[in-house]
Amino acid sequence: MKLRNILIVVKDIEKSKKFYHNLFGLDVVLDNDGNMILTEGLVLQDEKVWKEVLEKDIIPENNSCELYFEENNIETFVEKLEKLYPQIQYVNRLMVHDWGQKVVRFYDLDGNLIEVGTPM
Hints:
Blueprint lengths: L5 E5 L2 H12 L3 E4 L3 E4 L3 E5 H8 L12 E4 L3 H11 L5 E7 L5 E6 L5 E5 L3
Parallel strand pairs: 1-4, 5-8
Antiparallel strand pairs: 2-3, 3-4, 6-7, 7-8
């Protein structure tokens, strides 16, 4: 068995596609009308489609999982994040853990938690 993808729910799939492309360089692999697969295995699912399938409300900022990315030049990444998305909601701004790793945590446009850290 293989884990093939991670799916996140988004309100505006086009805005989210742009967000993940602009910040992380992810490109569209497959666009299937409300279900978009990006490179690195990230799937964007339109909230309307997901609600029909799940028949439950979506809870943004639920803090039950996060997308984790690594970036060598994290200061440059944070500058890009602040320039492109100045309204972004941070969980924590750029910080250094006791073990020396630099990280920043924030929510995407739909309340999905993202962490970007330097490689360990």
